[in-house]
Design a protein that fits this description.
The protein has a 6-stranded mixed sheet, with helices on both faces. It starts with 7 loop residues before the first strand and ends with a strand. It is built from 8 helices and 20 strands. It has 347 residues and is an alpha+beta fold.
Length: 347
């Protein structure tokens, strides 16, 4: 930062005389202030429902959907602006201390009218958490501006929102799933992409599996549609497959690696067929046989957040944690999912 000083100094008689020229990076406060870039500031809040869908609102002044939020007023903190906007737009009182993303939006963003003289914007995305049906029912819209709210599948956001808004929202949602703090974005794109960002997870619709959860093996009289495994690494995380072409997340087949201690965890039943789940400890992972899939280690909670399992999802997750305890494995800390090497690994 350049050295700042007053414009004038006092001479021996008590009068002022101009500051003499100085070499180097010295600047007057006025010159320094004039040299700084000016930006707008805004704050929005990302809320999901219990199915992992994102709250978007319709407004009376544009066709595409928006996250709740808006401009930061002069002298207002961004987090205070987020709380104020939620109260004004949805009638919801809350406090949103956790930031998911900070985005730099360039001045030359397409679609902004030139007469607006848009200088660029710094936009803060805060975590509004997961809302229950009861909290959603408590929303009260104002008489004007906000005409409705919906909860959208993440993959549908690019069709509903402005392109930059959709990129930012998906990046913030991935940052929430990663769980390691605020992501820095430039025009909606992370400056330090994680595996979830690089693979573009949530850009395609999640496959719904809303059947009821049942513990134990599949009864002999039920047809089995597919089998998948909760395969645990020694740190308590599980193997997850991501389709490189679509970003879709899948549990692997039980045969994806060398395992020990396999148990029939349970099954989902829907559309007259069962989706069987096995739990086991991974002891080794062979070289990747299918380059179309990336292999990641993720926490069970992250797997659930990348899946569409309906109301019974918490029952399956509880069974997964019981199996982890049965296998004497630790509860994993939430860290960004880690991509495993193509050559495989051993534990």
């Amino acid at each position: 930062m350049p050295q700042l000083t007053d414009e004038a100094v006092t001479d021996g008689s008590g009068g002022d005389r101009p500051e003499p020229e100085r070499a180097g990076t010295w600047m007057t406060p006025q010159a320094y202030g004039a040299s700084r870039a000016g930006f707008w500031a805004a704050a929005v809040v990302l809320v999901t429902d219990t199915h992992g869908r994102v709250l978007v609102q319709s407004v009376d002044y544009r066709a595409d959907r928006l996250l709740p939020g808006g401009a930061v007023d002069a002298g207002e903190a961004p987090s205070a602006a987020a709380a104020r906007e939620m109260r004004e737009e949805l009638g919801v009182d809350g406090h949103y201390p956790r930031g998911l993303a900070v985005d730099w939006i360039p001045a030359d963003t397409p679609g902004i009218p030139p007469e607006m003289r848009f200088p660029g914007e710094i936009l803060h995305v805060y975590d509004g958490g997961t809302w229950t049906p009861e909290r959603i029912d408590a929303v009260r819209l104002p008489a004007q501006e906000i005409t409705g709210i919906d909860f959208a599948e993440p993959a549908d956001l690019p069709a509903l929102m402005d392109a930059g808004d959709a990129r930012r929202t998906l990046s913030a949602l991935r940052a929430r799933i990663n769980g390691t703090g605020t992501a820095l974005l430039e025009d909606g794109r992370p400056t330090a992409p994680t595996a979830l960002d690089r693979l573009g997870v949530l850009r395609s619709r999640r496959t719904p599996q809303h059947g009821a959860w049942h513990h134990g093996p599949v009864p002999a009289h039920l047809p089995v549609r597919d089998r998948s495994g909760w395969l645990f690494a020694p740190d308590g995380r599980v193997l997850l497959l991501i389709a490189r072409a679509t970003g879709a997340a899948h549990l692997p087949p039980p045969t994806a690696g060398a395992v020990s201690g396999a148990i029939p965890l349970g099954y989902r039943y829907g559309a007259r067929a069962a989706h069987a789940r096995t739990a086991a400890r991974l002891t080794a992972l062979p070289p990747a046989a299918d380059p179309a899939y990336a292999r990641l280690l993720a926490t069970p909670e992250q797997v659930r957040e990348l899946s569409d399992w309906g109301p019974a999802g918490h029952h399956e997750l509880a069974a997964v944690h019981a199996a982890r305890g049965h296998l004497a494995l630790p509860a994993p800390a939430r860290t960004p999912p880690t991509e495993l090497p193509a050559e495989g690994t051993r534990w």
